[in-house]
Amino acid sequence: MVKAIIFDLDGTLLNREASLKLFLDDQFERFREYFTHVQKNDYINYFIALDEYGYVKKDRVYKALLDQLNIHFIEKDDLLRDFELNYPKFATGYPNVKDIISRLQNRGYKIGIITNGNVEHQSYIINVLGIEKYVLETLISEAIGYRKPEPEIFLMMCEKLGVRPRECMFVGDHPINDVEAANALGMETVFKDNHYFEVPDKRIMNYHIEDLTELFNIIDEETI
Prior knowledge:
The chain has ten helices and six strands. It is of the alpha/beta class. Helix 1 crosses helix 2, helix 2 (40-51) crosses helix 3 and helix 3 crosses helix 4. The two termini are 12 Å apart.
């Protein structure tokens, strides 16, 4: 029986592409004097392509962006600092994310978040999404020294929530870091498909969803 539902953050609760587009639009406008020969759409689209869904370090993204667009009068470190300071302000959740997390908590499920990344950054994003008060435990890789897909970070969450792995449902968008890693520990797995990563093998994936509201169908089906 599932007692806890654990979520990945980026690409699962956070609509990363929407958040990035809002931030990059704002960044372009604030630094427009350095981009006089660059179209805003090119700036945004090149960044998103180079970013590879968040799996390329931002210093490399900005270096490549400046090279690709022949931007010479501002340093990548200036844009990187701006990203680190301001990106979380534009955090945008998937539709109804706050309501969904609230409803799951009200149904008695223990809610957790496991995310790789910087503590200040990821904590700020969770706060902007407005879901912090519904989440019992949050584990951020920088704070604990383990990263998904390492099993330790999942087991640490189980310990903090007071549940066994087989009593957990893990919801994430990455086939390896989320689905495969959670399945290996005996967790029930839900793949949140954003049409970026390849769909995991059905042998390690219990459910395949595109919208977080589908979680209620899964839960209702399992409790009949």
